[in-house]
């Protein structure tokens, strides 16, 4: 795995720099690159690891709140549907952050 720097021009003429964690693999005899996760504007995996841990903490808290939340003002069926939708959304986000965390921790431990 390795980190790739991406620079893109913005509408106002400035450049925006982001970083991605990539993995090289072979597909039908050709070397390809697969993006494991985006590191955002963090230049090193160590910085990204710190930020992903913080985001994971926040989203885990939001998931717990969604599980406990009581929806009012609408019929029971709609309340349950909204609750399930929110829980599913937060669970998906937490799962993705955990995957990113494992990938970044792997890179940091290799250094």
Description:
This protein has 111 residues and is an alpha+beta fold. The protein has one domain (2-110). The protein is built from two helices and three strands, in the order βββαα. It has helices spanning 45-68, 76-110; strands at 2-9, 15-27, 30-40. It has a three-stranded antiparallel β-sheet with strand order 1-2-3.
Percent of residues in helices comes to 40-55%
Tally the helices. Answer: 2
- Average pLDDT: 83
Walk across the major sheet and give the strand order: 1-2-3
What is the makeup of the main sheet?
Answer: 3 strands, antiparallel
Global geometry: elongated
Low-confidence stretches: none
Multimeric state? single chain
Number of separate structural domains: 1
Task: Give keywords.
three-stranded antiparallel β-sheet; alpha+beta; 111 residues
Question: What is the strand and helix layout of this fold?
Answer:
Layout: E1 2-9, E2 15-27, E3 30-40, H1 45-68, H2 76-110
Antiparallel strand pairs: 1-2, 2-3
Short précis:
With 111 residues, the chain is of the alpha+beta class. Helix content is 53%, strand content 29%. Strand 1 (2-9) and strand 2 form a beta hairpin.
């Amino acid at each position: 795995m390795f980190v790739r720097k991406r620079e893109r021009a913005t509408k106002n003429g400035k450049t925006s720099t982001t970083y991605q964690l990539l993995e090289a693999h072979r597909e039908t005899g050709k070397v390809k690159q697969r993006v494991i996760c985006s590191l955002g504007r963090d230049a090193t995996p160590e910085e990204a690891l710190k930020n992903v841990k913080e985001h994971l903490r926040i989203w885990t808290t939001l998931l717990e709140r969604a599980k406990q939340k009581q929806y009012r003002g609408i019929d029971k069926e709609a309340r349950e549907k909204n609750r399930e939708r929110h829980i599913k959304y937060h669970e998906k986000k937490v799962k993705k952050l955990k995957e990113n965390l494992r990938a970044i921790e792997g890179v940091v431990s290799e250094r």
